[in-house]
Amino acid sequence: MANPGTSAPPDLFEAETQALLTARAAHAVCACLAPSQCRQALGELLRAYERLLRETRRLVRRSDRAELEMNQLNSRLQDLAAELEHRATHDTLTGVLNRAAVIELVNRHFGHDDLSLIVLDIDHFKRINDSFGHPMGDRVILGVVACLQAVVPASAHIGRVGGEEFTVVLPRQSADVCEKLAEDLRRAIESCDFELPDGSGVTASFGVSWAPPGGDFDSAYGLADEALYVAKRGGRNQVCLSPCFLRSLEHEA
């Protein structure tokens, strides 16, 4: 029941309803009506029906347009949601995973898999930025990522965890495969022409760790970072393995 003081919504088809009632009344007593009266009632009914068809078609077209607009809006919202998710999990410059996404990925894999982590750092990157400017530094970072992407297998995941520091996440890979991959990555960067103004090359240092299922990012990264530090102290442009990684190699041997 409508609340007192509120009016009922207008009937869009009031004229058609009235014409229908008139035609019904005429039909009920048609034997008593003159032909002209029957003709008039029928004409009014025809006009009302034609108008009803026009209004129905107009409403259907409007409904179709509204449905199309809604579908387009939903599609755009899905695109925006996917874009926001990508921005939340990927590095803006390079498009690889960002640090938070790498941490989540590593911890998730450790729930059921062993995992190797390669950590690499571009050697003397500060000199590149200071000597040639940040745009050139960005070009070098993009070039290093291109080298990584050209070498890593499809099962691996690349992440940027610092300004010039990257990780390669390798679930379910043997120790010797990971060591060889790190060496391949090192050589790929060393042999790449980054077109620095002074003609110098770019190298990177690598640390590699391995842990069985049940580990976590902090421990795996800490071990790989320690190995990376050893590579830096040892002269850079080399691969160093964490002690646990060495033990896993000995076990495989």
Task: Describe this protein with a few key phrases.
253 residues; alpha+beta; Alpha-Beta Plaits; 2 domains; five-stranded mixed β-sheet; 8 helices; 5 strands
How would you describe this protein?
This protein is of the alpha+beta class. It folds into 2 domains: 14-85; 99-252, 2-Layer Sandwich (Alpha-Beta Plaits). It contains 8 helices and 5 strands, in the order αααβααββαβαβα. It has a 5-stranded mixed beta sheet with strand order 2-3-1-4-5, sandwiched between helices. Strand 4 (204-211), helix 7 and strand 5 form a beta-alpha-beta unit. Helix 1 (14-28) runs antiparallel to helix 2, helix 4 (125-132) packs across helix 5 and helix 5 crosses helix 6 (175-191). The termini are far apart. The mean pLDDT is 86.
Indicate how many domains the architecture comprises: 2
Main sheet strand line-up: 2-3-1-4-5
Percentage of residues in helical conformation = 55-70%
The CA-CA distance between the termini, in Å, is: 85 Å
CATH level 4 superfamily of the largest domain: Reverse transcriptase/Diguanylate cyclase domain
Alpha-beta classification: alpha+beta
List the helices and strands and how they pair.
Layout: H1 14-28, H2 35-89, H3 99-109, E1 115-122, H4 125-132, H5 134-151, E2 157-160, E3 165-171, H6 175-191, E4 204-211, H7 217-233, E5 239-241, H8 243-252
Parallel strand pairs: 4-5
Antiparallel strand pairs: 1-3, 1-4, 2-3
Helix pairs in contact: 1-2, 4-5, 5-6
